[in-house]
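Q: Sequence in, structure out?
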Amino acid sequence: MRRRRRGAEGNGGLEGRVGWWASTFPTLAALALTACAAQPQAAPSPEPATPTASLTQTPAPSPTPSLTPLPSLTATPDPYAELTIEHLRTRQYGSQGLTVVQEGRIAYGLTRAYFDFESDGLQVHAFVDIPDGQGPFPVVMVLHGYIDPEDYNTLSYTAHYANDFARRGFIAVHPNYRNYPPSDSGPNLFRVGYAADVLNLAALIRAQAGQPGLFEQADGEAMGLFGHSMGGGIALRAVTVSGQFDAAVLYGAMSGNERWNFEKIQEWSGGQRGIEELGIPEADLQRISPIYFLEGVQAPVSIHHGAADSQVPPEWSDDLCARLVALSKPVECFSYPGQPHTFVGEGDALLIERAVEFFLRYLRP
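A: Exactly. Output:
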């Protein structure tokens, strides 16, 4: 606002006019002064000064800048973090315990027990075949391949492998996995949940080995994996993320490349399965796929594949074998001419003989 200028009026103007009058009429001026001196006048009573209002400019307050708070920086959740190989390598495994559901004798001097164990808060069903005699016995976990859960039976096609290993002096453990009745249902994207069930069960067996109970006769320091098809893929993930296994047999196994796996699963299912898995970014697929982390494999690996397999391409096993050889990992690789996805006859018998010899070499050196 502009300051208004006030006219200042003092007595300087009056004195100038009196001085002019006296100098112009000196005689009259003298008479006037004499008359004034001859007639004394009472001094005027002082009047209180009337304050004159002055206009003072009050500066307008300058606006205080308001600070706009910055949005808080919140990390974007990684939806696939718990599926990655790195996460699976760092998380803890174990179980709150197990409950024996049924136990009895079966053929060939074996004891079979059905039990439930806790895995990531789920109850998962399994069975174990235990040989007669004095332990401790090495442990082989038998991992079955894909069967529609609606058609699954605990004593499925892989039960005979468990039975064969137990007859040769191994404790053979066969988990159903989550989502396979009568197990609880749980998350299983990329079948990582199945691998978690296997790793939790392995940690439980190690913890209870030699203690009174179901695994009293188990050697917790000698544990192998035998996986067919999907079970072979689960076994590969397990040995890629954990050093608690001493040997692994992969039989007609799925790939460690999840893109290859789920493209094939889409083909098998007529496009009904694998949609979610193939919809994620390639960079995340690679974080999840064991094939890119084989440097972490510590266990010796034995690879078996039927040359006439029309379901899982034999080239996948060839690729895995070449990669492990290039990394100087202990690996042996076998192709079975004329054998389909699930071996039959002499091919099946030869597979068991080679697997037993391999486990004896590394679990009972």
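The radius of gyration is 47 Å.
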